[in-house]
Amino acid sequence: MPFDADELENGARAATGLDDFGSPYYREGLERIVDALNTEADLNDIGRVIQHATISNALIQRLKVEETYRQHPEIDDEVIGGPVFVIGLPRTGTTALSQLVAADPQFRSLRTWESQAPTPPPEAATQHTDPRIAAAEAGLKMLDDMFPLMKTMHNSEATAATECQDLMGMSFRTFHFDGAVRAPGYLAWLMDCDMRETYTFHRRVLRLLQWHCPPTLWHLKTPVHMFALDALVEAYPNAKFLWSHRDPAKVMGSVCSLIQYVRSWSSDRDDPRELGAEQLDSWVEAVRRAMDFRTRMGDERFADVSFADLQTDPVRTLQDSYERLGLSFTDAASDAVRQWAEGHKPGSRGAHDYDLAEYGLTSEGVRERFADYLAAYDATA
């Protein structure tokens, strides 16, 4: 049976007893990804289950967010501090950089367990014992058991900072859908769609999360923010950015390998050369847009972080980045960041092996496509 947007919505209504999805903005993205799942993704049986669960949860959480605001409209008065966003090409150390910032007690981060289920709003007194933590841990364990190679590619923990994909997914406008399944039609639409309401809904969820659970100075992360920084800053006028840099020739093979593995959960289709061309085009465009945004907005919002520096001296690297952005790097921050770094040494989760040539790419060809980026920033590591 094909996926159907109306049936998915009705299932979410039945699961919650709720009916208000808020602004109809989300619906076009839902219809686009449903069409891609039906016509482009070549889903296997497991993939149908995974994608049905992913879309259903996004709809369920959207309903619950809107219901929470209906009951507590005062949440809309919450003021978001910052935020500081970690951006950069995937596989450039964005996860490690994000976790280092999350260790700093002055920041509020989006944690995996609350990203997956933001309602009811978390409470400061129970944030470390909330039953959603155990549920998230069980889900991650099941994922590790089913797809064990993932542990060598990407680290996910229930209580650790995570990417913004769930929040953006509630508007059905996120590149993470393309990361999970082959969806070229959806990707082409996503490249040029209006992302402004995606970020206002993103902000809506952050307000809910901080309402009873401070601090209110936020740190957030995902490489896909680079595609729509103007829309992001419209929602967050005081946003600042930590931009991680690494040689794209060392990045793209890792990016493709990760996506190839994740897509293999949902589909038996395997065309690495198609994947290589798609991902290269997408991330060249992401960097082009981010560089254009930076040129227009000025360097004051940005601190550049070298992957090599992050690997060899993470504490000093973060301190320098804070100084660049006008942030305070306290003794408490230094101690917490150092402790996290000592417990998460590079390579401690095993080796992630990949071959750039498998994806029809060469180091020289990749660097040529990123020539403007390489000329502008230190990405030689």
Automatic annotation (TrEMBL):
Gene Ontology MF, one: transferase activity
Pfam families: Sulfotransfer_3
Keywords annotated in UniProt: Transferase
Keyword Transferase in record: yes
Name of the featured protein: Sulfotransferase
Lineage: Bacteria, Bacillati, Actinomycetota, Actinomycetes, Mycobacteriales
